[in-house]
Design goal:
Structural class: mainly alpha
Number of strands: 0
Order of helices and strands: HHHHHHH
Number of helices: 7
Distance between the termini: 70 Å
Shape: elongated
Strand content: under 5%
Length: about 150
């Protein structure tokens, strides 16, 4: 029995080492271009800081990767989260959205933050959680901003 456990451990270790040679494609544009989003939605400095600290890494075309993101299987897991985040809401692509879609995306942002689904718990483990005051500021800004798109 001990021999089997040892073999399983060795096999697991070999697989883990081999995984290090395969890394996912990075979400790594030359720079984080959220200027159009910020120009159009006019978030306060406080809200920009909240977005930068909690949203831009997974919801733009430029992620600032921490050191541990180079270690498999963490790198695969993070790549999946970032890809999915951008599929749902990509602030770099803001100008490509219709006004109706922009309104919908802001509505989703409000819902996800209110229900504590965003930022992801996994993100807050290493980046810190969003405070109730920050949540309120972000939600109030998003609700106010939605009015722009309802008029069009």
């Amino acid at each position: 029995m001990k021999k089997n456990i040892k073999k399983i451990f060795v096999l697991f270790f070999i697989v883990l080492v081999v995984m290090q040679f395969f890394s996912p494609e990075l979400n790594n544009a030359d720079f984080r271009d959220v200027a159009n989003f910020e120009k159009e939605t006019k978030p306060s400095k406080e809200v920009v800081a909240i977005l930068k600290n909690n949203c831009y890494d997974c919801h733009s075309n430029k992620t600032e990767y921490p050191w541990y993101s180079k270690i498999s299987p963490i790198s695969l897991w993070m790549a999946d989260h970032i890809e999915e985040g951008n599929e749902h809401f990509n602030l770099t692509e803001w100008n490509a959205y219709s006004d109706k879609k922009k309104d919908h995306k802001l509505d989703e942002l409000i819902e996800e933050v209110e229900e504590n689904k965003m930022p992801l718990k996994e993100y807050t483990w290493t980046h810190g959680s969003i405070t109730e005051e920050e949540k309120e500021a972000l939600i109030n800004w998003a609700k106010k901003t939605r009015a722009i798109y309802k008029l069009n």
